[in-house]
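In the design runs reported in the main text, the only information available to the sequence generator was the tokenized backbone. The following block is the verbatim input for one such run; it is reproduced so that readers can re-run the procedure and compare outputs position by position.
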């Protein structure tokens, strides 16, 4: 009988091996989420320069149009008359704010590719809108006794002279209640406020935007420090609402109802604007 393996050599027997798992990847610390790029001080400076240039150009254009109409139709136009100055100021203001709105929209939506509404602060807020609408008249009631403590000036305000004409007052009331609060809150508390808040904090953002808000209205109040001081306080209220709610809608509602209260008081009580 012959052996199965005449050479006497045998192949080694391979035992089954445990499956090897791949080596774990090297540890990498979690990366912080990338914040979307947004507007800053340089964009704010560009916007302010653009607004000033636009205002100057519109003032020159408005004067040129008046003189052109006067020359074409042979009548003299007195720019100091309320029925001339009032509508002219409203037209210039509307065109300037339209240009500012367009500039802000291009910065937010085109340059930084952000959704305009949420980025500017048109977002939902806690509480009822009616509560904020009622806050405007209450704010005006608080401002009245405080303003009475400040020194008075007998000379009428430039704004008061325009309100002597009923038609001009009606136009200013429509602009001051329906348009000005929307565009001003969008500019001061919607666009400017976040720039200061991100770098210097909420308190500085409230105070800085309130100061600029007061100065922008300085011309119509004859640059009287008493009126500018009260506007600084009113602006601080609007800024505080923006800081607490994260939305510019509450400050817009209070701003609109506050202005409506002022115009109603002037209409009902006569020559009382300076007290408000």
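Verbatim output:
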């Amino acid at each position: 009988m012959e052996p199965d393996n005449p050479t006497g050599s045998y192949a080694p027997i391979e035992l089954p091996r445990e499956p090897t798992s791949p080596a774990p990847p090297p540890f990498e610390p979690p990366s912080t989420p990338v914040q979307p790029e947004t507007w800053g001080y340089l964009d704010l400076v560009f916007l302010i320069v653009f607004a000033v240039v636009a205002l100057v150009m519109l003032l020159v254009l408005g004067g040129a149009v008046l003189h052109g109409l006067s020359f074409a139709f042979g009548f003299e136009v007195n720019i100091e008359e309320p029925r001339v100055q009032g509508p002219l100021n409203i037209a210039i203001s509307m065109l300037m704010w339209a240009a500012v709105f367009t500039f802000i929209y291009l910065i937010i939506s085109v340059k930084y590719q952000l959704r305009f509404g949420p980025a500017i602060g048109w977002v939902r807020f806690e509480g009822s809108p009616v509560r904020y609408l009622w806050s405007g008249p209450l704010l005006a009631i608080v401002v009245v006794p405080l303003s009475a403590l400040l020194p008075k000036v007998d000379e009428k305000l430039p704004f008061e002279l325009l309100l002597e004409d009923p038609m001009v007052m009606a136009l200013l009331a429509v602009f001051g209640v329906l348009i000005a609060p929307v565009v001003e809150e969008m500019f001061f508390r919607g666009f400017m406020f976040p720039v200061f808040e991100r770098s210097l904090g909420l308190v500085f953002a409230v105070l800085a935007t309130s100061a600029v808000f007061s100065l922008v209205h300085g011309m119509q109040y004859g640059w009287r420090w008493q009126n500018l001081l009260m506007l600084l306080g009113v602006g601080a209220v609007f800024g505080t609402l923006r800081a607490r709610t994260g939305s510019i809608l509450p400050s817009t509602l209070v701003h609109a109802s506050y202005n409506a209260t002022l115009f109603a008081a002037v209409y009902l009580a006569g020559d009382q604007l300076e007290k408000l």
